[in-house]
C-alpha cells in the first residue's frame, strides 16, 4: 500500500511539473496573440519628415520603418553573439567532458558516461538560455511599437497592458521552457542512474553552468552594447546640442533602442534563467544526500518526490503568477499615472502572499516522513514546517529587498528627490550624492539576506539556504514580466519621439518607463539577493562533495570539520576572491567607456559633416548603421575578457592551488559581489529616475525642467549610472553564481589533482 501510495504521489508530482510548464508556455502564447491583435497602424499622421528624408509621410509608415530598423539591429547582434556563444559551448563542453571523465575515473578507467552526461546537461542549459533570450528579444521588439500605438489611445489601460503582456510572454515562456527542459534532463539521467540521486544531481549541475555561462555573455555583451549607444547619444545629443532624448536626428538613437532589447531583455532573460537553473541544481545536489529512516530500517536514498520538492516549488509558482497577473490587467487595471507603480508593486506583494500557503501545502504533500540529511554543520530532520519556513524566508526576504530597492530608486520617495535636488549645484554633487545613495541602499538588503541565511541554515543547514534561494525566485514569472515591461516602455517612448508623435504620447510612455526603471531595479535586487543565496548553497554543495571524496579516499583535510578560513592558503584566496568583483567591474566599465568614446566621436563627426541634421526639419538622414556597427563590434570584442576571467579563475585556482584555495576564493567573491552589485545597481537606477523627475518639473520650479543646467547635470549623472545599473552591477550577481557552480561541476577534477592539493601540493 505504501509503495502504491508513493508511486501515486510521484506520478502526481511529475504531472504537476509538466502541467505547470505547459501552462506557462500556453499562457505566453495567449499573451502574444493578444498583443498581435493590435494593428501596426497609427491613429494619426505626422506633419514632419520621415527617417528616410521623405516629405511628410504617413505616421504608420514611420512606425513600421523604425520598428524594422530596431528589429534588424537586434537580430543581427544576437545572431553574431550567439555564433560566438555556440563556439564557446562546443569548446567548453568538450573540456567538461574530458576533465569530468578524468576527475571521476576509478580503477576501471575514465568515467566517460558521467563526463558525457555532465557535458550534455551543460549544452542543454546553454542552448535553453540562448533560446529564451532570443525569443524575449523578438517579443519585446514586436511589442515596443504596439505599446507606442496603444499610448495614442485615451487612458492608460491599453498601453500599460500591452507592455505588461509583453513582459508576461518572456516571463512565462522562460519559466516554462526552463522547467520542462530541466525535468526532461532529470528523467534522462534517472533512466540511466536509477535511484543514485547523488551521481544524477552531480551531472545536472552542468545545466546550471550552461545557463550561467550564456548569462555572463548576454549580460556583459548586451550591457556594453546598450550603454555605449546610450551614453554616446546622451552626451552629444542632449548635453552638447540640447536635442531631446531619442530624437531621430541623433545617429545613435537606433543603436540605443536596439540595446534596450539585447541588453535589458535578452541579457536579463538569460541572467534570471541562470538563477533559476543554479538555484534548482543547488537544492537538488544538497537534497540528493537526504535519507529516509534511521538505523537498520533506513532507506539508502531520498524519494523521487522528496528530491523534486524544489522543482515543484517553481512549478506551483507559475500557477500563482498566472492568477495574480489578472490583478494588473483586469481586476485593478491602470486608469491613471499614479496607478502604474501601484499595479506593478501589487504584483510582487500578491504573488508573495499567495505563495506562502501554496508552499506549505506542497511541502506537506511531497516531503516524506522521517527524512533527514547530514549537513556541513549538523544532521537535521527535513520536515514540512521547517522546509516551509526556509522557502517562506526567501519569498518574504525577496519582497523586502524589492520594496527597499523601490524606496531608493523611485522618484516617489525622498532619496531620489533629494538626489534631483543635488543637481541644482552641478553634476559633481549629483554624482557624489548618487554614489552615497547606492552605498546606503545596500545596508538593509544585506541585513535581510543575513537574517534569511541565519534562519534557513539554523533550520536545515545548507539545504535550507538552497530552499530560501528557490523561494526568492518562486515568483520568477512575475519578476521577469515587470523587468521586461521597463525596456518595452523605454523603447515605446523612443519610437514615439523618433516618429515625432504628439507630445502627450511621449509623456505617457515616459511615465510608464519611470515606473519601469524602478521595477527593473527591483528585479535586479531580486536577482542579486537570490544569487547570494544560490552562491552560498553551491559553495556548501562544493564543500560537501569534497568531504565525500576525502572520506572515500580516506584522506584527512581541513574540510573534515568545515572550512577553516584562518588556514593561510584559504585566507589568502579569500582576499583575492574579494578583489575579483572589482576587477570585473573595472573591465566592464572601461569597455563601456571605450565604446562610448568611439560612439561620441562618430556622432560628432556626423553632426559636423552633415550640419543640416540639427535643423528642425532635416533634409539629410543620419547614418544609423555606423553607430550600430560600433556598438556591435565593441560589445562582441569586450565581452570575452571579463567572461574568461570569471570562468578560468576558479578553474586555474583549483588546478594549481587546490580545493582550500577555491573555498577562500568563492567566499571572498560572494561577500564583495553582493555589496558592490546592490550599490551600483541602485545608484544607477536612482540617477536615471532623478533625471526623469527633473524632466517632469516646470521651467518655473526650482528644478527648471528639461534643457536647463539642472537637467544637464542630471543627464551627466544618468550617463555615469548607465553602466552601473545595466552592465557592471547586474553582471556581478552572475560572477558569484558562475564561479560557485563551476567549482562544483569541477570538484571531482580538483580532487583528482593530488587529492585536492593542486599541482603545487598546497
TrEMBL record:
Keyword Iron: no
Recorded topology in the membrane: Multi-pass membrane protein
Top-level EC class: translocase
Any one GO molecular-function label of the UniProt entry: inorganic diphosphate phosphatase activity
Keywords noted in UniProt: Ion transport, Magnesium, Membrane, Translocase, Transmembrane, Transmembrane helix, Transport
Entry's localization field: Endomembrane system
Superkingdom assignment: Eukaryota
GO cellular component: endomembrane system; membrane
Primary location recorded for the protein, binned into one broad class: membrane
Enzyme Commission number, as recorded: 7.1.3.1
InterPro entries: PPase-energised_H-pump
Transmembrane intervals: 12-35, 80-103, 115-137, 166-189, 307-328, 348-367, 388-408, 442-463, 526-548, 568-589, 645-672, 731-751
PANTHER family: K(+)-INSENSITIVE PYROPHOSPHATE-ENERGIZED PROTON PUMP
NCBIfam families registered for this protein in UniProt: PRK00733.3-5, V_PPase
Cited HAMAP family: PPase_energized_pump (MF_01129)
Protein name: H(+)-exporting diphosphatase
Amino acid at each position: 500500500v505504501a509503495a502504491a501510495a508513493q508511486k501515486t504521489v510521484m506520478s502526481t508530482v511529475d504531472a504537476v511539473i509538466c502541467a505547470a510548464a505547459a501552462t506557462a508556455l500556453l499562457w505566453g502564447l495567449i499573451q502574444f496573440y493578444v498583443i498581435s491583435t493590435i494593428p501596426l497602424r497609427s491613429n494619426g499622421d505626422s506633419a514632419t519628415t520621415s527617417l528616410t528624408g521623405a516629405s511628410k509621410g504617413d505616421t504608420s509608415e514611420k512606425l513600421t520603418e523604425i520598428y524594422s530598423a530596431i528589429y534588424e539591429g537586434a537580430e543581427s547582434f544576437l545572431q553574431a553573439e550567439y555564433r560566438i556563444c555556440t563556439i564557446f559551448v562546443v569548446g567548453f563542453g568538450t573540456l567538461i567532458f574530458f576533465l569530468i571523465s578524468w576527475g571521476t575515473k576509478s580503477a576501471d578507467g575514465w568515467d566517460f558516461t558521467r563526463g558525457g552526461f555532465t557535458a550534455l546537461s551543460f549544452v542543454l542549459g546553454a542552448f535553453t538560455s540562448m533560446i529564451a533570450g532570443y525569443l524575449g528579444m523578438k517579443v519585446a521588439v514586436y511589442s515596443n511599437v504596439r505599446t507606442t500605438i496603444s499610448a495614442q489611445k485615451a487612458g492608460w489601460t491599453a498601453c500599460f497592458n500591452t507592455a505588461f503582456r509583453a513582459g508576461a510572454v518572456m516571463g512565462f515562456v522562460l519559466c516554462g521552457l526552463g522547467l520542462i527542459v530541466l525535468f526532461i534532463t532529470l528523467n534522462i539521467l534517472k533512466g540511466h542512474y536509477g535511484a543514485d540521486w547523488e551521481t544524477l544531481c552531480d551531472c545536472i549541475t552542468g545545466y546550471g553552468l550552461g545557463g550561467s555561462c550564456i548569462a555572463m555573455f548576454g549580460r556583459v555583451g548586451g550591457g556594453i552594447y546598450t550603454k555605449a549607444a546610450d551614453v554616446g547619444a546622451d552626451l552629444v545629443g542632449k548635453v552638447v546640442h540640447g536635442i531631446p532624448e531619442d530624437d531621430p536626428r541623433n545617429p545613435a538613437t537606433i543603436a540605443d533602442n536596439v540595446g534596450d532589447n539585447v541588453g535589458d531583455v535578452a541579457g536579463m532573460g538569460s541572467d534570471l534563467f541562470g538563477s533559476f537553473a543554479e538555484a534548482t541544481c543547488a537544492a537538488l545536489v544538497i537534497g540528493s544526500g537526504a535519507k529516509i529512516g534511521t538505523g537498520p530500517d533506513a532507506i539508502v536514498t531520498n524519494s523521487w518526490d522528496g528530491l523534486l520538492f524544489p522543482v515543484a516549488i517553481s512549478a506551483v509558482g507559475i500557477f500563482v503568477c498566472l492568477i495574480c497577473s489578472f490583478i494588473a490587467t483586469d481586476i485593478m487595471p491602470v486608469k491613471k499615472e499614479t496607478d502604474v507603480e501601484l499595479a506593478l508593486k501589487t504584483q510582487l506583494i500578491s504573488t508573495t502572499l499567495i505563495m506562502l500557503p501554496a508552499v506549505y501545502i506542497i511541502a506537506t504533500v511531497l516531503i516524506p516522513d522521517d527524512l533527514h540529511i547530514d549537513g556541513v554543520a549538523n544532521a537535521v530532520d527535513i520536515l514540512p514546517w521547517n522546509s516551509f519556513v526556509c522557502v517562506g524566508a526567501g519569498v518574504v526576504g525577496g519582497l523586502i529587498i524589492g520594496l527597499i530597492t523601490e524606496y531608493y530608486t523611485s522618484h516617489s520617495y525622498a532619496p531620489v528627490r533629494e538626489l534631483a535636488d543635488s543637481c541644482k549645484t552641478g553634476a559633481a554633487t549629483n554624482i557624489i550624492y548618487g554614489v552615497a545613495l547606492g552605498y546606503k541602499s545596500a545596508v538593509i538588503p544585506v541585513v535581510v539576506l543575513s537574517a534569511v541565511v541565519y534562519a534557513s541554515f539554523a533550520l536545515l543547514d545548507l539545504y535550507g539556504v538552497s530552499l530560501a534561494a528557490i523561494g526568492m525566485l518562486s515568483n520568477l514569472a512575475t519578476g521577469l514580466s515587470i523587468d521586461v515591461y521597463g525596456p518595452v516602455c523605454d523603447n515605446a517612448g523612443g519610437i514615439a519621439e523618433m516618429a515625432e508623435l504628439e507630445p502627450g504620447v511621449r509623456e505617457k510612455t515616459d511615465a510608464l518607463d519611470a515606473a519601469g526603471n524602478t521595477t527593473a531595479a527591483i528585479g535586479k535586487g531580486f536577482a542579486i539577493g537570490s544569487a547570494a543565496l544560490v552562491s552560498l548553497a553551491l559553495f556548501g554543495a562544493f564543500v560537501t562533495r569534497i568531504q565525500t571524496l576525502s572520506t572515500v579516499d580516506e584522506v584527512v583535510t581541513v574540510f573534515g570539520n568545515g572550512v577553516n578560513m584562518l588556514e593561510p592558503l584559504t585566507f589568502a584566496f579569500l582576499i583575492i576572491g574579494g578583489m575579483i568583483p572589482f576587477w570585473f567591474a573595472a573591465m566592464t566599465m572601461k569597455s563601456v567607456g571605450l565604446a562610448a568614446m568611439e560612439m561620441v566621436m562618430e556622432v560628432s563627426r556626423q553632426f559636423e559633416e552633415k550640419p543640416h541634421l540639427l535643423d528642425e526639419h532635416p533634409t539629410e538622414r543620419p547614418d544609423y548603421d555606423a553607430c550600430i556597427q560600433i556598438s556591435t563590434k565593441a560589445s562582441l570584442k569586450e565581452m570575452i575578457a571579463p567572461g574568461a576571467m570569471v570562468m578560468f579563475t576558479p578553474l586555474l585556482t583549483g588546478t594549481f592551488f587546490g580545493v582550500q584555495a577555491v573555498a577562500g576564493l568563492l567566499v571572498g567573491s560572494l561577500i564583495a559581489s553582493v555589496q558592490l552589485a546592490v550599490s551600483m545597481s541602485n545608484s544607477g537606477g536612482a540617477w536615471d529616475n532623478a533625471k526623469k523627475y527633473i524632466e517632469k518639473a516646470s521651467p518655473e520650479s526650482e528644478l527648471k525642467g528639461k534643457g536647463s543646467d539642472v537637467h544637464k547635470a542630471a543627464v551627466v549623472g544618468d550617463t555615469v549610472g548607465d553602466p552601473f545599473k545595466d552592465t557592471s552591477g547586474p553582471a556581478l550577481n552572475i560572477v558569484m553564481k558562475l564561479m560557485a557552480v563551476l567549482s562544483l561541476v569541477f570538484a571531482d577534477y580538483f580532487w583528482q589533482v593530488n587529492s585536492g592539493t593542486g599541482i603545487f601540493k598546497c
